Amino acid sequence: MMILVKQAWIAVVVSLGLLGGQAFADEFPIPENTEKSTSTPVDPAAVVKSAKLPPGFQLSLIAAEPDVRNPIAMTMDERGRLWVAENYSWAGGGAGGFNSDIRDRILIFEDTNGDGTLDKRSVFWDQASKLTSIEIGDGGVWAICLPHLLFIPDRDRDDAPDGPPVVVLDGFDSSSGVSHTPANGLKWGPDGWLYGRHGILATSRVGKPGASDSQRFAINTGVWRYHPIRDVAEPVMHGMTNSWGFDFDEHGEMFVINTVIGHLWHVIPGAHTERMFGLDINPHSYQLLKQVADHVHWDEGENWADVRKGITDNTSAAGGGHAHIGLMIYQGDNWPAEYRNRLYTLNLHGLRINTDYLKRSGAGYTATHGPDICFMEDPWFRGMELITGPDGGVYIADWSDTGECHDHDGVHRSSGRIYKLTYGEPKRIAPFDLQKQATDQLIALLAHRNTWWARQARRLLTERAATSKNEEELATLHAALQKSLRETSDPIVRIRLLETIATTAGADEAWWIKQLAAEDEYQRSAALKFLVDLTTQAGATPSAVVLQTLQQLAASDPSGLVQLHLASSLQRLPVDLRWEITQQLAQRDEYATDAVLPLMIWYGIEPAITRDSTKALALVEKSQMPLLTELVARRMTLEIEREPGAVDQMLALVAEGKCRYPESVIRGMAAALNGWQKAAAPKPWSDVAKKYGQAQDVEIRNHVQSLSVVFGDGRALDEIRVIVTNNQLPAEARRSALRSLLVSRPADYVPTLVQLLDDPALMIEALRGLAQYDDPSIPAKILARASKYDAAARAEMIQTLAARPSSARTLLDAVQAKRIAASEISAFQARQIASLENEELTRDLIQLWGDVRVSAAEKRALIDSFKEKLSPEVLSQADLSAGRVLFQKTCASCHVLYGQGRLLGPDLTGSNRKNIDYLLENVIDPSASVGADFRTVVIAMDDGRVLNGVIGELNERTLTLKSAQESITLDRQEIEAMKTSQVSLMPEGQLQKLSDEETRNLIAYLMSSVQAPLPPE
């Protein structure tokens, strides 16, 4: 990038204006504010004074505009100096994300005399572009400047770059589509890797400059890392939505914060976690890990009305909302002991710091909600990061803006603050420079109660070891570390020493194997991670001794955490060497139903399943984990056409009672063949169907039915037909039978489906079934019964008719004839008709319903118009109960509010609903910020249907399409064409068919603080 080469390399050092000197001024151009609010940032002194804190705590101002603006990230160096990344290039979601014509910069703040105030400010570099994060180390500054990870050398430590930045990695997506979810968040891990994060709105292919596509890794949401000594990068974890914070606990375990779908995950290398939308990077993950928190920060618990004047929202009681930024596990020495080792994150909408307690649970962790702290009264407060400093105080960066994370209302670039949260009177620390400390002094700091000192010491020792050319010095360092380990009984200090021995390459595999005998499970877990890392570098294969050691641990180690990291280690081994460890892990029945371990085992062994069916069958036979058994069976069944003999043998185990969880095999097979029209029946199927077709478990009976249809079992098909038409049977049993039968789409079944339109119990399923048949008589027969349908069936009727040009013609004719009201056609269904790409249909749709395509200028005008009409006075007169009914009709098919609805899109409860701009812009222009994986897919089927939705799951044979109406699994062999549009699943025009009164009621309900009652019947 030319902007990175043509730069001034002289840093400017001046007095900090906030603390009495001249306000900083140079030729760096501060871009104009585009934020639309008519208010202004609250005076920092007033913010400090009004903050509500626990007894004994105090909030102080460290820096504010004009000395700092838009602080997007912070870190500290070995001199205790605060480094701040200022970002001006973020233009807001409504302006296409980043503006590459605007510069960003990196600042340094310093306390030169140890009096506790920052009295010196320097500009280190002011030629950055799309800057999202910084970190210090290895003789320079690391920075994410999209699309690059840069290293800016400053080996002489004079606070001026030694030369142009070095592009270490590239490929991080920086297009307009990435919006507010770009790569971000640099922080050193206890293993010597530099960790970062990635959001969900784009897929990046990351690698070294010039690397081919095969030499890069793909990531579209999750955690990644880079090792500066080995010069390698890799993904760590895939999943979540948009993460903007992580930290490591005292045992070296990593936790990451997230927005929208839950807020906290334990970062286990190789994990695949739930995500807001889109497909996991591995189509065979099948099931994704849930968050470790046992709560969300919205819509539960008591309200904070007695704490925060004027706030009565239940969401406030639960924590303030779904947007979390920054994460710190407090391990300092200033706050009281009871605050130590708790997890803290900044809640954007709640204007506070959330607190979670971390505790072990099974093989992993659970987080419970603790009392939130530091409530800010400033509506402009937008916390971006919180970090602990050398005196144990906590620094908090404030972006200072009124927009939420999307910033659709523009960016206020001329404000920004940094606060400090301390308890009592922090101890004064004289100026220091750990770089000048002797090696033994740095080793001693590994025992410091404030982890800040230990982390800095470890980093410096790691750098010394990496750059040392003196073998004797290295040997002395390693001997000193091991001596300290022998002499130290403190378990946390021992873990820090193990980490430093690992990052300085201070031990061989035999030494690490000995550490696996430690009594403390956390020390064994640390030793295990470092042993695996050491023996798998550069794609190396671990020795037979290491593999045998791992197998023994899997069989005998009582710690769930050790088991979890063993499962994680599978992915670092050659695929064919994973079986023995997996077999041992799978037989640990004490973790049979653990929330994490079976899935981590699965992620590790999945690539091996299709390579060795004999060993896969042995795993099915011996597994003591029902979920693992199910997933193995699912993967094997997906290969039924290529390797039918393996499925035969697997079912033989079921028929002969040779596996512990036969029902799990059936579940896995049903999931694998969901959407298939036909497959050859495995030889033992009839025996299995006979044995489990009458199982007490209704789910298993239904799966047997469905599989029998796919396998073409004529007798089973006849039985299912009888069940469907027997109105003496339970309705759900009949509906399930009908769904099973329709998988094979019997050619003679249209008359039966038409008859079922008169049966209230099967009406909706019959309408969905008729959608599969291209019969010209069907539309008229559906419409002839329209008066009998309830609201849900009428919606399904319109969905069915909108799927084909011929039936859509009949639908629009019915609207023209006033047999169906135009308002009954939803925005989703209108777009469905438009996607048929029939000029006559589109013309008539516009005439009868309205235009589904609106220009950007028209959208902006609509937003302004609605905002003018929906004044606070107008909204105060709204009928919230009527608004709730409209929400159920218009929005609940995709969104949850107050626990009601369908979670296809974001849960709205914890969002920024009180902001009228936020609501209107998301409703009227939902495609302004939409990820590639959440864009609408238009699918043309070979039976004539055209379907719209987003892909929820995809494998070699089937595709699951999710829409506002339903989720449907399709056989890809029946798809004629598929194209991805540039629009969100949420269509425009949601307000188009509503009256002013209805719009008022709906918007007021969406902005409400508490759930409204339903209107009386």
Give an overview in words.
The chain has 1017 residues and is α+β, with helices and mostly antiparallel strands. The protein has 33 helices and 36 strands. The strands form ten sheets. A five-stranded antiparallel β-sheet has the order 1-8-7-4-3, with no helix packed on it. A five-stranded mixed β-sheet has the order 13-14-17-18-22.
* Structural class assignment: alpha+beta
**What integer is the average pLDDT?**
89
Q: Number of DSSP helices?
A: 33
Strand order of the largest sheet: 1-8-7-4-3
Query: Roughly how many Å apart are the termini?
Result: 65 Å
Uncertain runs are: 1-25, 300-312
Give the biggest sheet: 5 strands, antiparallel
- Percent strand equals 15-25%
Number of strands: 36
Cα gyration radius (Å): 30 Å
Share of residues in helices: 25-40%
Shape: globular
Keywords:
1017 residues, 5-stranded mixed beta sheet, globular, alpha+beta, disordered N terminus, 33 helices, 5-stranded antiparallel beta sheet, 36 strands
Short characterization:
This protein has 1017 residues and is of the alpha+beta class. It contains 33 helices and 36 strands.
Write the layout of secondary structure elements.
Layout: H1 2-5, E1 12-15, H2 44-50, E2 57-64, E3 71-76, E4 82-86, E5 90-92, E6 97-98, E7 104-110, E8 120-128, E9 131-136, E10 140-145, E11 148-153, E12 166-170, E13 184-188, E14 194-198, E15 204-206, E16 217-219, E17 222-227, E18 232-240, E19 246-248, E20 254-257, E21 264-267, E22 271-275, H3 314-318, E23 324-329, E24 343-347, E25 352-361, E26 364-373, E27 383-388, E28 394-398, E29 417-423, H4 439-445, H5 451-467, H6 471-487, H7 491-503, H8 509-515, H9 521-535, H10 544-556, H11 560-569, H12 579-586, H13 597-609, H14 613-622, H15 626-637, H16 644-655, H17 662-673, H18 685-692, H19 698-710, H20 714-725, H21 731-742, H22 750-756, H23 763-770, H24 778-784, H25 791-801, H26 805-816, H27 827-834, H28 839-848, H29 856-869, H30 872-875, H31 880-890, E30 896-897, E31 900-901, H32 916-924, E32 935-941, E33 946-954, E34 958-962, E35 967-971, E36 975-984, H33 996-1006
Parallel strand pairs: 18-22
Antiparallel strand pairs: 1-8, 2-29, 3-4, 4-7, 5-6, 7-8, 9-10, 10-11, 11-12, 13-14, 14-17, 15-16, 17-18, 19-20, 20-21, 23-24, 24-25, 25-26, 27-28, 28-29, 30-31, 32-33, 32-36, 33-34, 34-35
